[in-house]
Protein backbone atom coordinates (compact mmCIF):
# COMPACT_ATOMS: atom_id res chain seq x y z
CA UNK A 1 0.00 0.00 0.00
CA UNK A 2 1.26 3.50 -0.75
CA UNK A 3 2.11 5.91 2.08
CA UNK A 4 -0.99 7.88 3.13
CA UNK A 5 -0.96 11.52 2.07
CA UNK A 6 -0.40 13.90 4.98
CA UNK A 7 -3.33 16.01 6.20
CA UNK A 8 -3.42 19.18 4.05
CA UNK A 9 -1.79 22.14 5.74
CA UNK A 10 -3.69 24.71 3.65
CA UNK A 11 -5.97 25.59 6.59
CA UNK A 12 -4.23 27.77 9.19
CA UNK A 13 -2.85 25.64 12.03
CA UNK A 14 -4.87 25.77 15.24
CA UNK A 15 -3.46 25.38 18.70
CA UNK A 16 -4.27 22.06 20.36
CA UNK A 17 -7.37 22.35 22.55
CA UNK A 18 -6.80 21.07 26.10
CA UNK A 19 -8.79 20.79 29.30
CA UNK A 20 -7.22 24.14 30.24
CA UNK A 21 -8.78 25.68 27.12
CA UNK A 22 -12.13 24.36 28.38
CA UNK A 23 -11.69 26.11 31.73
CA UNK A 24 -10.52 29.36 30.10
CA UNK A 25 -13.49 29.38 27.72
CA UNK A 26 -15.90 29.02 30.64
CA UNK A 27 -14.13 31.86 32.50
CA UNK A 28 -14.41 34.07 29.41
CA UNK A 29 -18.03 33.08 28.79
CA UNK A 30 -17.17 31.65 25.35
CA UNK A 31 -19.33 28.67 24.29
CA UNK A 32 -17.46 25.35 23.97
CA UNK A 33 -18.24 23.24 20.89
CA UNK A 34 -18.26 19.45 20.71
CA UNK A 35 -19.44 16.95 18.08
CA UNK A 36 -19.10 13.20 17.87
CA UNK A 37 -16.98 11.42 15.26
CA UNK A 38 -16.31 7.74 14.76
CA UNK A 39 -14.04 7.60 11.72
CA UNK A 40 -11.07 9.24 10.02
CA UNK A 41 -12.76 11.39 7.33
CA UNK A 42 -15.41 12.75 9.70
CA UNK A 43 -12.81 13.53 12.35
CA UNK A 44 -10.78 15.37 9.72
CA UNK A 45 -13.77 17.45 8.56
CA UNK A 46 -14.95 18.28 12.08
CA UNK A 47 -11.44 19.20 13.20
CA UNK A 48 -10.80 21.38 10.14
CA UNK A 49 -14.13 23.14 10.71
CA UNK A 50 -12.65 24.37 14.00
CA UNK A 51 -14.43 22.32 16.66
CA UNK A 52 -13.11 22.51 20.24
CA UNK A 53 -13.58 18.82 21.04
CA UNK A 54 -14.50 15.53 19.44
CA UNK A 55 -16.30 12.83 21.37
CA UNK A 56 -15.93 9.27 20.14
CA UNK A 57 -19.31 8.52 21.67
CA UNK A 58 -20.72 5.10 22.46
CA UNK A 59 -23.65 6.41 20.38
CA UNK A 60 -21.69 4.74 17.59
CA UNK A 61 -23.38 1.52 18.76
CA UNK A 62 -26.64 2.94 17.38
CA UNK A 63 -25.70 5.32 14.57
CA UNK A 64 -22.80 3.33 13.07
CA UNK A 65 -23.29 -0.28 14.18
CA UNK A 66 -27.10 -0.34 14.07
CA UNK A 67 -27.82 -1.59 17.59
CA UNK A 68 -31.06 -0.63 19.40
CA UNK A 69 -29.13 1.09 22.22
CA UNK A 70 -25.57 1.75 23.37
CA UNK A 71 -25.19 -1.31 25.60
CA UNK A 72 -23.62 -3.84 23.18
CA UNK A 73 -20.56 -1.82 22.10
CA UNK A 74 -17.27 -3.16 23.53
CA UNK A 75 -13.94 -1.66 24.61
CA UNK A 76 -12.25 -3.16 21.55
CA UNK A 77 -14.81 -1.60 19.18
CA UNK A 78 -14.53 1.77 20.91
CA UNK A 79 -10.72 1.71 20.70
CA UNK A 80 -10.87 0.78 17.02
CA UNK A 81 -12.97 3.88 16.26
CA UNK A 82 -10.90 6.08 18.61
CA UNK A 83 -7.72 5.23 16.68
CA UNK A 84 -9.36 6.20 13.38
CA UNK A 85 -10.52 9.54 14.84
CA UNK A 86 -7.10 10.22 16.38
CA UNK A 87 -5.52 9.75 12.94
CA UNK A 88 -7.87 12.34 11.43
CA UNK A 89 -7.93 15.10 14.07
CA UNK A 90 -5.09 17.49 14.79
CA UNK A 91 -6.28 20.17 17.20
CA UNK A 92 -9.54 19.17 18.87
CA UNK A 93 -9.54 17.76 22.38
CA UNK A 94 -10.29 14.05 21.86
CA UNK A 95 -12.60 12.34 24.33
CA UNK A 96 -13.25 8.59 24.36
CA UNK A 97 -16.56 7.39 25.74
CA UNK A 98 -16.20 4.49 28.17
CA UNK A 99 -18.64 1.75 27.12
CA UNK A 100 -21.15 -0.06 29.31
CA UNK A 101 -19.48 -2.34 31.91
CA UNK A 102 -15.98 -0.98 31.29
CA UNK A 103 -16.01 1.15 34.47
CA UNK A 104 -18.90 -0.07 36.66
CA UNK A 105 -17.44 -3.31 38.08
CA UNK A 106 -14.46 -1.98 40.02
CA UNK A 107 -12.36 1.13 40.40
CA UNK A 108 -9.28 -0.81 39.25
CA UNK A 109 -10.98 -1.99 36.05
CA UNK A 110 -12.30 1.53 35.39
CA UNK A 111 -8.82 3.02 35.76
CA UNK A 112 -7.17 0.38 33.58
CA UNK A 113 -9.80 0.78 30.84
CA UNK A 114 -9.59 4.57 30.99
CA UNK A 115 -5.84 4.25 30.48
CA UNK A 116 -6.39 2.15 27.36
CA UNK A 117 -8.26 5.05 25.73
CA UNK A 118 -5.11 7.18 26.00
CA UNK A 119 -2.52 4.48 25.46
CA UNK A 120 -4.19 2.46 22.69
CA UNK A 121 -6.92 4.80 21.40
CA UNK A 122 -5.00 8.08 21.03
CA UNK A 123 -7.53 9.97 23.14
CA UNK A 124 -6.78 12.93 25.45
CA UNK A 125 -9.57 12.25 27.97
CA UNK A 126 -12.43 9.89 28.75
CA UNK A 127 -16.14 10.33 29.45
CA UNK A 128 -18.27 8.11 31.66
CA UNK A 129 -21.92 8.16 32.69
CA UNK A 130 -23.46 8.39 36.15
CA UNK A 131 -23.68 10.47 39.31
CA UNK A 132 -22.37 10.00 42.83
CA UNK A 133 -21.93 6.21 42.35
CA UNK A 134 -19.07 6.99 39.94
CA UNK A 135 -17.15 9.35 42.25
CA UNK A 136 -14.57 6.75 43.39
CA UNK A 137 -13.84 5.63 39.83
CA UNK A 138 -13.47 9.26 38.71
CA UNK A 139 -11.10 10.00 41.60
CA UNK A 140 -8.94 7.01 40.74
CA UNK A 141 -8.87 7.78 36.98
CA UNK A 142 -7.97 11.44 37.51
CA UNK A 143 -5.29 10.42 40.05
CA UNK A 144 -3.79 8.36 37.20
CA UNK A 145 -3.48 11.61 35.23
CA UNK A 146 -6.43 10.99 32.92
CA UNK A 147 -8.94 13.84 32.49
CA UNK A 148 -12.55 12.72 32.99
CA UNK A 149 -15.74 14.23 31.58
CA UNK A 150 -18.84 13.28 33.60
CA UNK A 151 -22.30 12.71 32.11
CA UNK A 152 -25.57 13.02 34.06
CA UNK A 153 -29.27 13.50 33.28
CA UNK A 154 -30.36 11.06 30.58
CA UNK A 155 -27.58 8.48 30.72
CA UNK A 156 -28.27 6.11 27.79
CA UNK A 157 -26.33 3.18 29.30
CA UNK A 158 -29.02 3.13 32.06
CA UNK A 159 -31.88 3.08 29.56
CA UNK A 160 -33.35 -0.05 31.15
CA UNK A 161 -33.32 1.49 34.61
CA UNK A 162 -34.69 4.84 33.38
CA UNK A 163 -37.56 3.14 31.53
CA UNK A 164 -36.56 4.51 28.13
CA UNK A 165 -34.77 7.50 26.58
CA UNK A 166 -36.64 10.11 28.64
CA UNK A 167 -35.81 13.56 30.01
CA UNK A 168 -34.52 13.67 33.60
CA UNK A 169 -34.68 16.10 36.52
CA UNK A 170 -38.23 17.28 35.89
CA UNK A 171 -39.38 17.16 39.53
CA UNK A 172 -37.92 19.22 42.38
CA UNK A 173 -36.61 16.06 44.06
CA UNK A 174 -35.00 14.71 40.87
CA UNK A 175 -33.57 18.14 40.05
CA UNK A 176 -32.03 18.45 43.51
CA UNK A 177 -30.44 15.02 43.15
CA UNK A 178 -28.92 16.07 39.82
CA UNK A 179 -27.48 19.24 41.37
CA UNK A 180 -25.91 17.14 44.15
CA UNK A 181 -24.54 14.68 41.59
CA UNK A 182 -23.03 17.53 39.56
CA UNK A 183 -21.30 18.98 42.63
CA UNK A 184 -20.03 15.52 43.65
CA UNK A 185 -18.58 14.88 40.18
CA UNK A 186 -16.85 18.27 40.19
CA UNK A 187 -15.40 17.49 43.62
CA UNK A 188 -14.29 14.03 42.40
CA UNK A 189 -12.15 15.72 39.73
CA UNK A 190 -14.14 15.91 36.48
CA UNK A 191 -12.84 18.63 34.15
CA UNK A 192 -16.28 18.99 32.52
CA UNK A 193 -19.78 17.57 32.69
CA UNK A 194 -22.31 16.59 30.01
CA UNK A 195 -25.92 17.40 30.91
CA UNK A 196 -28.28 15.38 28.69
CA UNK A 197 -32.03 15.93 28.36
CA UNK A 198 -32.65 18.00 31.47
CA UNK A 199 -34.85 21.11 31.78
CA UNK A 200 -33.06 24.20 30.44
CA UNK A 201 -33.40 26.21 33.65
CA UNK A 202 -32.02 23.36 35.73
CA UNK A 203 -29.05 23.00 33.35
CA UNK A 204 -28.42 26.75 33.61
CA UNK A 205 -28.53 26.62 37.41
CA UNK A 206 -26.09 23.68 37.50
CA UNK A 207 -23.79 25.52 35.07
CA UNK A 208 -23.76 28.55 37.38
CA UNK A 209 -23.07 26.43 40.47
CA UNK A 210 -20.09 24.59 38.93
CA UNK A 211 -16.66 26.02 38.20
CA UNK A 212 -16.07 23.31 35.56
CA UNK A 213 -17.80 23.76 32.17
CA UNK A 214 -21.06 21.97 31.40
CA UNK A 215 -21.73 20.66 27.90
CA UNK A 216 -25.42 20.39 27.10
CA UNK A 217 -27.33 18.08 24.78
CA UNK A 218 -31.04 18.74 24.97
CA UNK A 219 -30.32 20.98 27.96
CA UNK A 220 -30.81 24.47 26.55
CA UNK A 221 -28.59 27.48 25.96
CA UNK A 222 -27.58 28.04 29.59
CA UNK A 223 -24.82 25.40 29.44
CA UNK A 224 -21.19 26.39 28.86
CA UNK A 225 -21.04 24.38 25.65
CA UNK A 226 -23.06 22.18 23.33
CA UNK A 227 -22.67 18.70 21.87
CA UNK A 228 -24.67 16.83 19.25
CA UNK A 229 -24.32 13.46 17.58
CA UNK A 230 -22.82 14.16 14.15
CA UNK A 231 -25.04 11.61 12.41
CA UNK A 232 -28.06 13.59 13.67
CA UNK A 233 -26.54 16.91 12.56
CA UNK A 234 -25.88 15.53 9.08
CA UNK A 235 -29.21 13.70 8.78
CA UNK A 236 -27.34 10.41 8.38
CA UNK A 237 -29.28 8.46 10.97
CA UNK A 238 -32.76 7.98 9.60
CA UNK A 239 -34.29 5.82 12.38
CA UNK A 240 -35.31 8.74 14.59
CA UNK A 241 -34.16 12.28 15.39
CA UNK A 242 -34.46 13.55 18.98
CA UNK A 243 -36.45 16.78 19.44
CA UNK A 244 -33.39 18.71 20.61
CA UNK A 245 -31.40 18.09 17.41
CA UNK A 246 -30.87 20.77 14.81
CA UNK A 247 -30.33 19.07 11.44
CA UNK A 248 -27.83 20.91 9.21
CA UNK A 249 -27.96 18.52 6.24
CA UNK A 250 -29.89 15.57 4.85
CA UNK A 251 -27.06 13.24 3.90
CA UNK A 252 -29.10 10.05 4.17
CA UNK A 253 -31.29 11.10 1.27
CA UNK A 254 -28.32 12.68 -0.53
CA UNK A 255 -26.46 9.33 -0.26
CA UNK A 256 -29.48 7.41 -1.50
CA UNK A 257 -29.75 9.79 -4.47
CA UNK A 258 -26.05 9.40 -5.32
CA UNK A 259 -26.25 5.58 -5.09
CA UNK A 260 -29.37 5.49 -7.26
CA UNK A 261 -27.60 7.70 -9.87
CA UNK A 262 -24.61 5.34 -9.85
CA UNK A 263 -26.81 2.27 -10.32
CA UNK A 264 -28.61 3.94 -13.20
CA UNK A 265 -25.31 5.00 -14.81
CA UNK A 266 -23.94 1.44 -14.66
CA UNK A 267 -27.16 -0.12 -15.90
CA UNK A 268 -27.40 2.31 -18.82
CA UNK A 269 -23.63 2.07 -19.53
CA UNK A 270 -23.09 5.81 -18.96
CA UNK A 271 -20.40 4.80 -16.47
CA UNK A 272 -17.50 4.21 -16.89
CA UNK A 273 -17.02 6.84 -19.60
CA UNK A 274 -13.89 7.69 -21.61
CA UNK A 275 -12.44 9.84 -18.81
CA UNK A 276 -12.62 6.96 -16.32
CA UNK A 277 -10.58 4.39 -18.26
CA UNK A 278 -6.88 3.52 -18.48
CA UNK A 279 -5.37 3.86 -22.00
CA UNK A 280 -2.87 1.47 -23.56
CA UNK A 281 -0.29 2.52 -26.12
CA UNK A 282 -1.35 1.47 -29.72
CA UNK A 283 2.02 -0.16 -30.45
CA UNK A 284 1.88 -2.23 -27.28
CA UNK A 285 -1.65 -3.25 -28.17
CA UNK A 286 -0.64 -4.31 -31.71
CA UNK A 287 2.25 -6.33 -30.31
CA UNK A 288 -0.07 -8.08 -27.93
CA UNK A 289 -2.55 -8.93 -30.69
CA UNK A 290 0.23 -10.35 -32.87
CA UNK A 291 1.60 -12.39 -29.97
CA UNK A 292 -1.71 -13.96 -29.10
CA UNK A 293 -2.59 -14.57 -32.78
O1 LIG B 1 -22.37 8.75 23.04
C1 LIG B 1 -22.59 9.94 22.79
O2 LIG B 1 -22.58 10.37 21.63
C2 LIG B 1 -22.84 10.83 23.92
C3 LIG B 1 -23.29 12.22 23.61
C4 LIG B 1 -24.71 12.19 23.19
C5 LIG B 1 -23.06 13.14 24.73
O3 LIG B 1 -22.70 10.43 25.04
Kindly state the number of beta strands. 8
Structural classification? alpha/beta
Secondary-structure element string: HEHEHHEHEHEHHEHEEHHH
What is the averaged pLDDT score?
95
The total count of helices amounts to: 12
Which sequence of strands runs across the widest sheet? 1-2-3-4-5-6-7-8
| Major β-sheet profile | 8 strands, parallel, barrel
Radius of gyration: 23 Å
Helix content: 40-55%
Which stretches are low in confidence, meaning pLDDT under 50 for 5 or more residues running? Answer: 1-5
Structure ligands: 3-methyl-2-oxobutanoic acid
Instruction: Give the terminus-to-terminus CA distance.
Output: 36 Å
The coarse overall form would be elongated
% residues in beta strands: 5-15%
How is this structure best described in words?
- The protein is α/β, with parallel strands linked by helices.
- The chain has twelve helices and eight strands.
- The protein is elongated and about 85 Å long.
- Residues 36, 55, 57-59, 97, 151, 194, 196, 217, 227, 229 line the site of 3-methyl-2-oxobutanoic acid.
